[in-house]
Structure to design on (202 residues):
């Protein structure tokens, strides 16, 4: 039996944690609207689903126990976050009158890659989800908590997208500054990930 009254608030707190993907949802919404951000974030959910399956199979433990694999994953993730941050810093202020449809596929790809290249995500799946899964009904329990994680993740996406949109309404003339702040924060996330230590490492 899954203790949903414990799992749901604890999981949603994890989903709401401010990180690179949620920053992307907020930035995308500020530039192109809540619908754009929510649709682009489906790329994140599409990346998380197989990561949850990998954790269910027990392969997520590799990241927690292998220093080399963890280091490779975090360097790739950090480099990509820094690249995105520099790109935002160097880009001209967004034209809010332009249509965003042509950029949606690229935004979804960025969401997916940031999710896939962050070792902390699969470590979360490997360390957090199993605590709520009974061994007697392992696969059914993992499917339930995994599905709930994705639903709550989408709720967090909508939360950040809404915040980004409201912020944009009051700062339409300062979108260039918002973009630069987003880029700088993305670089900080990348540097933070680069300095992250493997759980259990001395």
């Amino acid at each position: 039996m899954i203790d949903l009254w414990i799992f749901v608030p604890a999981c949603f707190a994890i989903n709401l944690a401010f990180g690179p993907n949620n920053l992307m949802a907020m930035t995308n919404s500020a530039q192109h609207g809540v619908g754009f951000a929510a649709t682009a974030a489906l790329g994140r959910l599409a990346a998380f689903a197989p990561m949850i399956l990998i954790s269910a199979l027990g392969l997520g433990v590799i990241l927690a126990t292998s220093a080399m694999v963890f280091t490779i994953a975090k360097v790739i993730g950090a480099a990509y976050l820094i690249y995105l941050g520099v790109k935002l810093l160097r880009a001209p202020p967004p034209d809010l009158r332009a249509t965003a449809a042509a950029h949606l596929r690229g935004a979804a790809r960025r969401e997916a890659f940031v999710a896939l290249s962050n070792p902390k995500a699969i470590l979360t799946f490997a360390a957090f989800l199993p605590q709520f899964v009974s061994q007697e009904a392992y696969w059914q329990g993992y499917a339930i908590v995994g599905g709930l994680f994705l639903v709550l993740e989408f709720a967090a996406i909508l939360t950040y997208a809404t915040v980004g949109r409201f912020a944009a309404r009051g700062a339409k003339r300062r979108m260039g500054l918002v973009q630069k702040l987003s880029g700088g924060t993305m670089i900080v996330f990348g540097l933070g990930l680069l300095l992250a230590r493997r759980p259990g490492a001395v």
About this structure: The first helix runs from residue 4 to 16. Residues 4-195 form one domain.
